Every structure is written in C-alpha cells, then in structure tokens.
Write the structure tokens for this entry.
Amino acid sequence: MIVVTGATGQLGRLVIQSLLTRLPASQIIAAVRHPERAADLAELGVQLREADYTKPATLDAAFKGAEKILLISSSEVGQRTAQHKNVIEAAKRAGVSLLAYTSLLHADHSPLGLAAEHQATEALLKASGVPFVVLRNSWYTENYLASIPPALQHGAYIGSAGEGRIASAARADYAEAAAVVLTLADQAGKIYELAGDESYTLAEFAAELSKQAGKTIPYVNLSEADYKAALLGAGLPEPLAALLADSDVGASKGALFDDQRQLSRLIGRPTASLAALLKAAL
C-alpha cells in the first residue's frame, strides 16, 4: 500500500495518475484534507482517507496498513516544519518501509528563503529513524508560465532573476519521478536533485515567448523590492509576493540551476522542453 498525502493538490493528483500506470488502484491511498473533494480519485478505485497535517489522529488512521508514504510538502509556508513533523511521527508509528519527501533543489545550501523549512524537515527525517528518500525538486516551469497572460497584456515579462539560469521542469515530470521512486526497491537513504534537462534565463524565456506569440515581449529585470511591489499591485497576497521575489533573486545566484539530469534518468526520458510547455500554455 502506498499513501500519497496532499493528493488533491496539483502535484498529488499527477502522482496518483502516474502510480495508476504502475500499480492496481487498490494499492493506492489518497490522503486528503477534504475527501469530499476527491470523488474523481475514488471513481478510479483509489482509496480515500482523511489526513490533516495538523491533526495527528487523522494521520494515524490514514497511514494504517501503509508500506510507503509520499509526504508532499505543505503549502502553508511558515507552518510547514510543525506539520511535516506530525507526518514523520505518524509514519514512524505506522512502521512504514519508506517515507519520501518533496524538498527543494540543493536545499542544504540554497539561498532561497523557502529552503529553511525544507532543511528543518530533512533534519527531522534524519533524526526520526524512519527509512526515507528525499526528492529535491527545482522550480515548476508552471510558476513562470502563469505570468504569460500579464506579460502579453502589458508587453513585458518582469522578474528579478537577472542572468541566473533556471533548470525548471513540468510538474508532471516531478510527479512521475515520485511515482518511480515509490515503486523502486532500495530507495532509503537516497537524495535526488531533480531539475529539467535544459536551463534558461528569464530573458531567454521571454525570447521564446516572443517567438511563439508573434510579438516582442522583452524581459525587464527589476530589483527585488520593485518586483515584489509589482506583484502586490497585481493582487498577489504579501507573503506570496515576497516569496516569489525572494525566489527570483535566489535564481539570480544559481539556486534553481542543476545540470546532473537526475530527473530525466529517473523517468527514463527527456524532461518536457520549455518550447513545448510554452506552446501548450499559449
């Protein structure tokens, strides 16, 4: 039995879909905060169990009989460490043979503000005694594709990543890698640095966008403060605007670059290209 936490999230649903190509649905448990929102997963034959990272009793029930668990990192920045601690402790009580965790690329030395809670979680994993594997994911290409509509509207693509190279990958590629690791033997103790096969600067991203959209969309590099202000002006909440601006500055320092190609080796094919993902987004 394999449990996927956060299974109604964007990544979780894709992991479930990938697992279904490898395992009978009866061996997959979708652990979700609101089971009523996962009727589509139940229709596929997947078991639904309530699991709230803040309620240990629900985690114990969700993990009963599980052999492996995928802990998809919480989306509640600032509360992640405590929430992940609850999951790790419940996994230990359940006696699982493997706990996989979605961390951040080069989390141990990343300059991104996001890295702190991942570092803390990885430390908890190491101290827990639970057999674990770490999936250190780089940026989702979708994070940048989401800015295409305003870029087309305003005639510019903005950010604060400078000349930093970004080796992002599609969310589906990371999901497939998680499914592969969950179904492979002898994964305990491994740490994967997962990133796309190709890398790009945001200026190159804007150039490819311009080419495909048929109009010139220059990249405009802003200071962290100005980029955050622009995001706030676009209606993003302050914590998210601060996170995105900080992450772009981290990218300018190489935080989102990796050329080891561990991701494509895991999934047995090249990662989706930026050109293809841009085309689909347009």
Q: What stands out?
A: The chain has a mean pLDDT of 96.
